Amino acid sequence: MAPRLQLEKAAWRWVDTVKPEDITQEHVELAYRIAVPACKRGACRRNCKGNPNCLVGIGEHSWLGEIDENTFHNIDDPNSERRDKNTFVGLTNLGATCYVNTFLQVWFHNLELRRTLYLCQNSRAEGHSTESEYEPRTICEHLQYLFALLQNSTRRYIDPSGLVKALGLNTGQQQDAQEFSKLFLSLLEDTLSQQKDPTLQNVIQQQFCGEFSYVTVCTQCGRSSALPSRFYELELNIQGHKTLAECVTEFLKEEKLDGDNRYFCENCQSKQSATRRITLHSLPRTLNLQLMRFVFDRQSGHKKKLNNLISFPEILEMGSFLEAKEEKCTYDLSAVLIHRGVSAYSGHYIAHVRDSRTNDWYKFNDEEIEKMEGKKLQLGLEEDIAETVKSQTRKPKYSKGFHCSRNAYMLVYKRRLDQEDQTQTNVEVPAFLQRLVDQDNKKFEEWCSEMVDMRRQSVDKGKAKHVEVKELYELLPAQDGEPFEFVPVEWLKKWLDDSTATKAIDNSPFLCMHGKLHPDRIGEAKRISNAAAERLFNRYGGGPRVDRSFLCRDCVTRRCQVLRLKNQLSEDYREVTNLAKTQLKSGDEGFWIGKASLRQWRQLALEQLEEEEEETKHTNCKTNGEKPTCTGACLIIYVCIICEEMKMFNEDILCCHGGLSIHEGERRLVSHEVWGKLKVYFPRAPEFSQRQESCQQCTRMEKEGKENEALNRMMASEQKNSLLNLFQEKNRPTLQKWPQDTDVLYIVSLFFVDEWRKFIRRPAKSNPVSNVGNNILLCPHGGFMFTYNSMIQGDAQHIALLWPAEWDVICRLFLVDQPICICRTQDMQDSGSVQYRTEPELCRECREGFIFQQQRDLREYAQATVYVRKVIDSKRMIKEAAPEFSMSGSEAEDEREEPKMEGEKDPDFNQTDDGAKRQKLSDASPSTAPSCVPSVACTATAGKSGIRRSMRHRRLRLSHVTLFLQIMHAFSVAPFDQNLTIDGRCLTDDSATLGSLGVFPESIICLKADEPIADYAAMDDAYQG
């Protein structure tokens, strides 16, 4: 089928030869593309949007032919969630809880621990009714219920969220697995110690606890002292070792204590050199060996993972490592915990666990459980997530009875007893727990039955829909000469898409302003037979029913007129251009038209016609069947505003009152013939004949404006001549050098003077100043806010001083709300000393509050600049410039270079004669510079060797971090190596605010570094936590 644009052009090709009044039903059907041939199956890859008769590619291919029943539903087989025979139950990963799942599986396979937990008293579970769902509360109750489910549940995996929530773990953040093991065993020990049965109170110690001593021997007197201690796991260093035996040997090796690390001997009563070692006294039934793969890297400041290859045996002899040197202390490997991943902060945890009953090994990977046998029995050999295919092929070599791993981080060994009771391998679930498990199994079976019923219903519904679609699709095509109707193509697609619910048919969005089918929406509808439409509407409902009578002749006529005008536009543009060049004849009536409108009328008309053609509605017409206020037979071209800046045609000569603009230079006269042609395209444009007068209101306002402008100029000239020195800032009085010929100076606000100068400079563009406005210099009590000393210093930026003669002129020309003056007097009782007073007098209460607020703003600044100067040895130069810190409460921004001229305020810079900016560096020697250097020592001018051209500043922003960290970034000095001083005071309080330490805007902080650290970025992370 031809493309959509070709179909659209073909539908309206007849408009060039047919006038709007000559349109027939044949032309209407051509516009609605009734006679366009329907597409055959296989001819179109997708549905033809421009052809209402194309019913191919709307989703019918999935229904025509034989269909697999599984396509009628998206429900997985519930039996896939059922536990297989002779397999274990997995645990759901809640996000990042794989490390919890591995430990739970290891502890579940510790039969003695499981048996003991089953014996714990649980009155809530024993008295629980099966009508409600059981919710454990304590850690012991959670473990009991979880282990019972792992043992006898019919589910393939269970959800441990109850236990995880009780432990307060964040499911989205991976914790330290080794630390979790320690904390959980400690928590479980405390919980079991509260049991009434004495045999249950010490089960954790019996299972996991061993004893060793730290033995220290003085090399001077030979005295030996032992510090006994208990352990639940042995933490073995693996760095530099290849076998487990080497790791244990290093753990027990003797260590020398000398130098600063000497030992205080109680016998010698002094610090002496000594040796220290660990001696093992007893080992637990379950021996947990932590391989310390996650260690802290001092250089990076982060934890890292060691990928050393460690060899470990299936049978471990520990007798030779005990202090008593037992002949037999044999352990069998029962579990290997593995971390897959190259980072210590991410990865995945799995466990290899031996079944105590069958001695078979299983891999526990959250929900997935796999039996390991034959060649798969390579304990600890789990491929790393980040390993390449090439590295995976290099398998380590190991002897029989041994295993090797780069990822194993914990080994669990079980002690071999001389006389093992085989009945101990069977652990029965108590009746009260089995009742809860049966309740959960029943719930699971009900869920399986529900899923099976849902699958069956979906299949039955799909089969019925299949029969319906096959029958109806054959009826959809409308034959020539037979009745037809239109339905939305999107509705047909959703009807054929079984994954969505079929709603009622809605044809209302396709209706035009006349309540019929809009010709521009024909591409979104499909023409189907009346028989098919009857069955669809009876089955699904909806409306309105759109048949042949809904073909809108009015819309077709309007579109025909628009297209004809669009084709005629180029010819009319040339004719209007030629006619506009001719002069009006005397006696001919002319019309006013805006020059901008005349230049742009073609573009405006073209955009307007395109808007009409595309039906992007910017009109006030009603739609969806509501009757319009105009007849359809007349030519209606609605003018739309293309954007806020684009005016309607001829609106550029409209004034704000709706009359003809007074600006004659923006308009011109055109003939009646020109205006008639433009009126066809813009029927609602404002019309002004040659005899139309300009707006009287605008004329009057213009006259008044010119008169006011003349008055303002006269007023500005008079005021400037009267106060010429004030305007030119010449011969101004100052408080520092009080004039000898007067004892009184008057004060006005500097804001008044600035506004007055603006008016004098541009009297036609600015409003005249009428009021002095001195009230802003007074407090609410009417008192003056500034003292003599403050006006000499910082407060001078708020006031301006006037001579008495100038004050007289001010009083004559302006309204004075409050006279303010400062007087000089001599105190005859005090040797004629000069004093100054103001009228009104100073309000001391408000002045103190004003100063307090200034100091508060100084300490609680939101954005300011301080400078840090590094004190250096005169024999070496620092490479970095003194950084400029911008204190701000906003988030950290990227570093950016400031313009060179902004260094002028930096106290490290001074202006030389040649205009170059130089940085001043202290050349104090180490002997003369103390550890806390006063700021004056850093501002001494350096010799030639100490002067260099400064680098541009680096502006840094502080946001929730300390000043120490920002200095570390700038100078590569770690926080604990920084000695900071300001005005001779050491800044040592890390928790204090900058304001409380006296670090104000433009302050200079001196930095003396003990020992620079190159890798300060790593120290940043370490310092922040």
Automatic annotation (TrEMBL):
Any GO BP annotation: proteolysis
Stretch list, region Disordered: 882-932
Record keywords: Cytoplasm, Hydrolase, Nucleus, Protease, Repeat, Thiol protease, Ubl conjugation pathway
Gene3D superfamilies xref list: Cysteine proteinases
Protein family: Belongs to the peptidase C19 family.
Protein name: Ubiquitin carboxyl-terminal hydrolase 48
Residue spans of biased composition, Basic and acidic residues class: 897-921
Any GO molecular function: cysteine-type deubiquitinase activity
Species the sequence originates in: Electrophorus electricus (Electric eel)
Gene (UniProt): USP48
Methyltransferase in keyword set: no
CDD domains per the UniProt record, alphabetical: Peptidase_C19L (cd02668), Ubl_USP48 (cd01795)
Entry GO CC: cytosol; nucleus
Chain segments annotated as coiled-coil in the UniProt record: none
Intracellular or extracellular location(s): Cytoplasm; Nucleus
InterPro entries, A to Z: DUSP-like_sf, Papain-like_cys_pep_sf, Pep_USP48, Pept_C19_DUSP, Peptidase_C19, Peptidase_C19_UCH, Ubl_USP48, USP
EC number: 3.4.19.12
Ranges where the USP domain occurs: 89-416
Superkingdom of source: Eukaryota
A Pfam short name: UCH
Reactions catalysed, as given in the entry: Thiol-dependent hydrolysis of ester, thioester, amide, peptide and isopeptide bonds formed by the C-terminal Gly of ubiquitin (a 76-residue protein attached to proteins as an intracellular targeting signal)
Domain DUSP span(s) in chain numbering: 450-551
